[in-house]
């Protein structure tokens, strides 16, 4: 490697270290989004409460974040919300909820916070990303999920809108997305080169078609098996941040993890991320210093077989969020009263020699 590229690398590292230091005193807005109408299983509306009960706010505070807890939003169910095209469920209710969330996320990001949205189902990512993009139009998205959530209202096999938000977000797909009730306010804010998927392992036929034919970068579980999570993250950052630095929106579906780690979720798929792979993703995102908003979705406390399963899933969600804000496996104590700058030295005048002799 040439001296010049060594120097450039060193400089880049210094810059990113500075950013990490700057970001260590994060101002974080937490928004609870107890919404479940993007899918059919009851319980995901209790996700924010479960994640809070698992200690999210305390954990973020212990990392030195200043927390602006906006509380849980209230989502109204639109009456007579009939199916679109005989299949798409609750379009008006999902559209209205997404609009409300978009406004809240936009306010939070505009006020200078890094915004954490606790779902709720993944349909809400349409709102959170749209709101984020109002302040950061050059943002990019890292979508960590077992599913691509990129069906259009015309290709969805289930009719659930939590499997469709990305199709609404992408400009290139707009000639394939019909205007559905509840979404007249919505405008696409992403291009296919602004998003990367990680963790995919359950794609519908149209989703597979879209990813391939629109050249959307994705790293399935097979890619992770082949090249390892380190290489996957390098390639993901190269695709999104290679030419310029830009704010990152992380949209993290807990079902990206293997169901043995995150059982309390609506659409588990075997063969998912290990704990170490999942946390490596978020540690690396933290290390960029560019995280600007995050969704943590699809924790469903009613779907754990036992209370231990529910607790494990919610605790995992807390670890994911905390590692986005600097929780590190090699230690991450930033609180002034916990930082150790000198080790205690034993006293030289130890006066219990007699005791020692007795013991010998
Ligand atoms: Mn999802």
TrEMBL record:
EC number: 3.5.3.1
KW Membrane (keyword) present: no
CC per GO annotation: mitochondrion
Keywords: Arginine metabolism, Hydrolase, Manganese, Metal-binding, Urea cycle
GO molecular function per UniProt: arginase activity; manganese ion binding
Cofactor: Mn(2+)
EC primary class: hydrolase
Residue ranges, annotated region (Disordered): 336-360
Signal peptide: none
Transmembrane parts of this sequence: none
Record field: catalytic activity: L-arginine + H2O = urea + L-ornithine
Pfam families reported in the protein's UniProt record: Arginase
GO biological process terms on file: arginine metabolic process; negative regulation of multicellular organismal process; urea cycle
Function in brief: As well as its role in the urea cycle, may be involved in tissue remodeling.
Similarity comment: family membership: Belongs to the arginase family.
Protein name as catalogued: Arginase
Species name: Hymenochirus boettgeri (Congo dwarf clawed frog)
Lineage of origin: Eukaryota, Metazoa, Chordata, Craniata, Vertebrata
